[in-house]
Amino acid sequence: MAEVTMEKLVTLCKARGFVFPGSEIYGGMANSWDYGPLGVELKNNVKALWWEMFVQSRLDMVGIDAALVMNPKVWEASGHLATFTDPLVECKNCHERYRADKIDLTKPCAKCGKSGTFTDPAAFNLMIKTFLGPKEDSSTVAYFRPETAQAIFVDYPLVMNASRKRVPFGIAQIGKALRNEITPGNFIFRTREFEQMEIEYFVHPSEWETHFESWLARMHAFIDACGITASKVHDHEIPSDELAHYSKRTVDIEFEYPFGQEELYGLAYRTDFDLTNHAKFSGKELSYTDPVTNEKYVPHVVEPSFGVDRTVLAVLLSAYHEEEAPTGEGGTEVRTVLRFPKRLAPVKVAVLPLSKKPELSEPAKALAQRLAKRWRVDYDETQSIGKRYRRADEVGTPYCVTLDFDSLTDDAVTVRDRDSMKQERVKLDDLEAYLANTLNT
Ligand code: ATP
């Protein structure tokens, strides 16, 4: 079947309430996207899976949830105010702006078609500035964080004290980051407001390579758990002359999106750059003394960095399938199905009474309510059962539970599987156990 296009995906996301344009009734707001009822469930499931894999299940990890606006000195120490820039060029003819590293400057301007009209690249800082409080002057300037990482470095001594962890150990955070991107676009791939899931893993300087390799493997394990198509995922070793100012080694994990192969996640060896600079700028001691050897040193850092929105995009693209399916009346039709891993599916179970008549709809509603104690459940009683199956497939609901007139006497329901489309009669008393068997996979 045909490959999914961005157009198909964006249309489905809007129609079914995954992601739609922000501020739409006012004509929208360029490149701002809102997650709808299904999108928020999917995003929450991605974040919960990440937290479970990297924080909850590991004794060497703890989490934080820090403020979005931090003391501006943080950004001075981290180097963001001086160097967190992208190269900006402008077409002198139509004034369209581009990121110089993302286009071929020898080609004509994509907007007006003129050649040789680009200005020389200038460094454009991506930090979004604001003023806190009623006075707008240099004393009230603040910045929205462009990454979640810095809060982890700044909170490092307090976390060390409170959690009594020993190196190697890591601090994780999920949260929003804001960047004044020059060219946001490609749906939720590049926006000015997005969410990150980041880990700073503190290690002895002599051990960074081993930790780097194991984090790379763990990042791929997460990608697999999300059902992201492995053959479309590629590691890209960043050449040493292109490394960010803080990094000694970076591997970008890239994904083949319909618009090209681009970054999904990044893994960076940040050395002791951040802790050393924060110690210098804050005047606080940020070193670590090994309780066994008494060696005192500034821990080095391996940083696995994940974008939530790019994960959601890669998950949707990987899950999207169009395939021939029987209509129920002897023919075939194309069904669209989102084959999410079950634990990421926004809705786990759809409860469908065969008829709208109260003798079926009432027990069906009660059943939906019963299952909703454990899972996100949808209740759907309109149109034919075939159409309702298709609607559930299109949003990736793993199970449809149909209550029919026999159910009233045999205390059983028909459970239909999204992927195999097989149907099985299951006793109502066994239903939760039946569903629980696979819903966590
Ligand atoms: P790019 O090269 O695509 O601009 P980056 O290298 O600047 O990305 P990082 O600073 O490494 O990105 O950020 C870590 C992760 O945060 C990225 O791997 C990506 O998943 C996510 N991310 C970064 N910028 C954006 C954005 N503007 N919109 C959505 N996600 C983003």
From TrEMBL:
Q: SUPFAM superfamilies, per this entry?
A: Class II aaRS ABD-related, Class II aaRS and biotin synthetases
Q: Name one GO cellular component term.
A: extracellular exosome
Domain of life of the organism encoding this protein: Bacteria
The entry marks the following residues as binding substrate, namely 99, 147, 194-198, 303-307
* Domain Aminoacyl-transfer RNA synthetases class-II family profile: start-end pairs: 7-353
Please provide the Gene Ontology terms (biological process) for this protein. diadenosine tetraphosphate biosynthetic process; glycyl-tRNA aminoacylation
Q: Name one GO molecular function term.
A: ATP binding
Q: Where in the cell is it found?
A: Cytoplasm
- Which Gene3D superfamilies does the record cross-reference, listed alphabetically? Anticodon-binding domain, Bira Bifunctional Protein, Domain 2
Positions annotated to bind ATP: 179-181, 189-194, 263-264, 307-310
Xref: Pfam families:
HGTP_anticodon, tRNA-synt_2b
**What EC number(s) does the entry state?**
6.1.1.14
Q: Which residues form a coiled coil?
A: none
HAMAP family according to UniProt:
Gly_tRNA_synth_B
Tell me which family the UniProt entry assigns to this protein: Belongs to the class-II aminoacyl-tRNA synthetase family.
Q: List the NCBIfam families hit by this protein, alphabetically.
A: glyS_dimeric, PRK04173.1
Instruction: Name the PANTHER family for this protein.
Output: DNA POLYMERASE SUBUNIT GAMMA-2, MITOCHONDRIAL (PTHR10745:SF8), GLYCYL-TRNA SYNTHETASE/DNA POLYMERASE SUBUNIT GAMMA-2 (PTHR10745)
Q: Self-association or partners: how does it assemble?
A: Homodimer.
Q: What is this protein called?
A: Glycine--tRNA ligase
Q: What is the lineage of its organism?
A: Bacteria, Candidatus Uhriibacteriota
